Amino acid sequence: MEKIDAQKRIETLRTIINQANYEYYVLDNPKITDQEFDKYLRELENLEKEYPEFDSDTSPTKRVGGEVIDRFKKVKHQIPMLSLPDVFDITEIEDFNTRIEKEGVKPTYVCEYKIDGLSVSLHYEKGILLFAATRGDGITGEDITHNVKTIKSVPLVLKEPIDIEVRGEIYMPKKVLEEINLKRAKENLPLLQNVRNAAAGSIRQLDSKIAAERKLDTWIYHLPNPEDYGIKTHQEALDFMDRLGFKVNKSANKIVTGINEIEEYIKETTEKRNSLPYEIDGIVIKVNSLDSQKQLGFTSKYPRWAIAYKFPAMEVLTTLRDIVFTVGRTGRITPNAVLDPVIVMGSTVKRATLHNEDYVIMKDLKIGDIVSIRKAGDVIPEVVEAKKERRNGTEKDFQMITNCPICGSPLEKKKDQVDHYCMNMACPARKSEALIHYCSRKAMNIDGLGDEIMEDLFNLGFVTKIPDIYRLYEHKKDLIELEGYGNKSVDNLLNAIEDSKGNSLERLLFGLGINGIGDKTALLLVKIFKTIDGFLNATYEDFERIYDIGPILAQNLYDYFHNVENIALIEELKSIGINMKYLGENERHHDLISGKRFVLTGTLSFTDRDSLSNLLISYGGATSSSVSKKTDVVIVGENPGSKYDKARELNIEIWDEEKIKSIVDSL
Ligand code: IVH
Question: Is CATH 3.40.50.300 correct for 428-500?
Fold first, then answer.
């Protein structure tokens, strides 16, 4: 074939295949057979192989997966990706409606399904998919383009060559989760918890093969910049996105006026819910007119023009078979309910935390009881109550243990506290939990060393203390042979371990698991002490003097850094080559933020307090909850509290919304 003909044919095939994908995955109305589709795809694959000069990122052959990235790039959202306030009953919807009417708006609403998945932002340039990002903290997300390209209902090329961002939900159809779990059960692998986690887990993979296998899907429901396209209502925005080729849930969405019609929609949806091929956990109610949306604006966290009505939590009955005890990394003992497995809202529940002895006593649980289990939208199931009327006398009383279930040491319960503790620092359970914590996301962030793998490695004796992690390469051969690990995943794991050596000190400090030192406090501390030697040389007073550190934390820190074993551990980690310095300030600096102490009051329309606080901290600022002479700047939003008055009283610099927004926009 002539080169020019090959190029033409490639373009034709891409158009045919994109259209076929659209008809099949978006319209659910295929016009060609699977065999024809496969024939075109194979022809295209062959031509692309033969003529690599015509390769294109948006070729439908790129949908099969296989692209592997080495890390997730951060993406800053031009417009924050907000979530919605949850409401649980009709009176709260009435309140929402009343608030809107009070603003002088006569609202028409669009009701939509609240899809149980994870939100995504899709960016197109001249109609071509440029990148896709997760929500992240709402301000910064992660680039997941390689995985999103494998989702067949996401157009790689739009029907018009325009620049646009759209947002929606990535989800896993119910049937796909069932199929995956059936397969996993046969292979004795742990089951995927629910559609939401399964979808999020598939998207958070570096290798796009996995996402491709998981058959994810999308519903697109939000256009962040409608005015750019002269659009006046949310419904028009939905129609517009539909016309561009996105999958919009047209048959589910409904324009309504008044509470009665909303109630009717909830009723209809509740009836349909179980027969839908995807999970929904509520409905979303949005003001239709975009002018009204603008007028209503935002609170610090949410739009004022939309709410999410969540379906009531589901309760099911099962038997409490046993109560078993686990030991956390601080030695804390937790009783856990072992339940006859039941499916609640699409996921199997086998265990539920019972928190502590008092909790079990308060609920008067007996082993053998029929108990009701509740699961709201969230993942964590809860034992609601024992059905006492169904007792038959064979139930056994709950007995709190007196010795550690792992090492046998006597447990201690401090005065006025509810928790029991194993005090044996060498207790194996404590140790493996501590190792899991060390590798966790907010600590050293070693991808691939989660709970189950770490427990295996601990039980195999490969990793029994932190420095062993860095010697895992010595067990490379054994690891490759272990069930479930391949050559590549072992390499990935060893690379992740090696990479983590360069982490900034706050991750190590948090990872060490010092009692009471969370990730935020760790960051605050490393900004002050800069290096691990700074901590080793600090006196109790040096710690106590720090704003935000009370006497208990100061004592914990001092004790930790003066314990011989801990000092030896730190020395060993130093010799392994772990970074012992705070690197943050070298990474990000802003003259107006770095080194300053901020207090936030009132609500800001463009972001929420937590996200802003994280952002300020990441630029070397510090935030605290009260104004004092040490405060450098008070950021004041709408309806500020007494902190504003105090700031004026103390003559502290004040930034209004406009000022902080212009700084954030410039970052
Ligand atoms: S609208 C500013 N519509 O629910 C508008 N969200 O708590 C933001 N969700 O983060 C979102 N279905 O991940 C919207 N039809 C729908 C939705 C939906 C599911 C998710 C989304 C969002 C969360 C809100």
Answer: no
pLDDT in tens, 471-518: 999 988 888 877 667 777 888 899 889 989 989 999 999 999 998 899
Q: Are 599 and 612 in contact (CB under 8 A)?
A: no
Q: What CATH code would you report for 3-62? A: 1.10.287.610
Q: Is the shortest distance between the CB of 169 and ligand 1 below 6 Å?
A: yes
- Tell me which CATH code domain 74-310 carries: 3.30.470.30
For the chain, residues classed under CATH 2.40.50.140 are: 315-397
The CATH superfamily of 315-397 is Nucleic acid-binding proteins (2.40.50.140)
The answer to whether residues 148 and 119 touch, using CB atoms and an 8 Å cutoff, is no
Higher per-residue confidence, 496 vs 66: 496
Strands 370-375 and 347-353: unpaired
- 114 is known as an active-site residue: yes
Please tell me the CATH superfamily of domain 597-666, with its number.
BRCT domain (3.40.50.10190)
CA of 118 relative to ligand 1 center, distance in Å? 9
272-330 residue pLDDT tens: 998 999 999 999 999 999 999 999 998 877 999 999 999 987 788 999 999 999 998 88
Element (H, E) at 21: helix 3-21
Tell whether pTM > 0.85. no
Which residue from 357, 396, 358, 390 is spatially nearest to 372, judged by alpha carbons? 390
287 lines ligand 1 (CB under 6 A): no
**Residue 432: DSSP 8-state:** H
pLDDT at 572 exceeding the cut of 80: yes
Torsion of CA 416, 426, 323, 186, to 10 degrees: 140
Rounded Cα–Cα distance for residues 655 and 646 (Å): 14
In the set 114, 301, 366, 596, the catalytic residue is: 114
